[in-house]
Amino acid sequence: MASGVVAALAYAGPPPLTLVRTFTSWRFTPGVAAAVAVLGGGYGLGLRRRPASAGAWPRGRTLSFAAGVVIIALVGMSFLGVYDDTLFWVRAVQNIVLLMVVPMLLAMGAPFTLLRDQLPVPARARLSRLLHGKAARLLTFPLVVTVVLTLPLLVLYLSPLYEMTLRSAVASAVAGLVLATTGFVYFWTRFRIDPAPRTDPYGVTLAITVVEMIGDAVLGVVLWLGPLVAAGYYTALARDWGPSIQVDQWLGAGALWIGGDVVGLPFIGVVFARMTREDHQKAVVIDAELDARDAERAAATAEPDGPQEAERPRLWWEDDPELSHRFRRR
């Protein structure tokens, strides 16, 4: 009894987390507010200054980017920001959202395309050279991107860096910025909604996604079965409510593992949608080229007296060695 009283007196964190407090607990974080203002204000200004000659801007891009900015605010200033130094699982949710959800939405907003549309021609050329230069191509090489996506969480949780983020607001802000930046590089280069340094096949993207899911699983298992992370910090916190330190870490391991895989599902859906769209666009171009070639051939072999059989445009499959015998006209 005495030890419980001492622990209760020693605890100086936020009150017990309840369902109601998940909606009512808020705090103002200047760094998060600044990031929201810069990203949201910059995107909004870009939309206002974008010339009408550039065409209509897709509404879905604006909604995606706005959702990403709103989630940044929620991660840093809602109950996730209030309890991120108190509960392991809350910090885990915060980190997986910063790595996977926020960057995906920001990349779907096509910020580089928005920036390019309002730049003068010389600056636009410099931006294109920067995005397609050797350094950018090297940094976005599939193997490099895979490491960039999977390594940050492993380093964060399996090194003293995690406890530093609990004790230092600066370290926490830097870690969050690194997670969001590395995630954005991944989604930007994989979606290719914006101009990207590489045009790797979407199959490579799906392979990287599988590797990332394996990385989430490995980290989840290590945190589930391994020793307590930042045990000294959480013990000294003397939290007298909620799950035990061990159960709290188990919950966080599940959030990192399952959360990463769940977020990967809509990403795969977007990739398949873009792959289908690009295949359709390529098919339209190929069909147009084949039709133009057939029209030229028909014009070259036409007789001046009137329409003959030779004047009929040949369909593309009539010249295909595997299909022509199946569809030969009788």
UniProtKB/TrEMBL annotation:
Pfam family of the protein (one): Caa3_CtaG
Topology of the protein relative to the lipid bilayer: Multi-pass membrane protein
Domain of life where this protein originates: Bacteria
Keywords: Cell membrane, Membrane, Transmembrane, Transmembrane helix
Residue stretches spanning the membrane: 28-45, 65-83, 95-115, 136-158, 170-189, 201-230, 250-273
Compartments, record wording: Cell membrane
Region spans: Disordered: 295-317
First-listed, main subcellular location of the protein, grouped into a coarse class: membrane
UniProt name for this protein: Cytochrome c oxidase assembly protein
Upper lineage: Bacteria, Bacillati, Actinomycetota, Actinomycetes, Pseudonocardiales
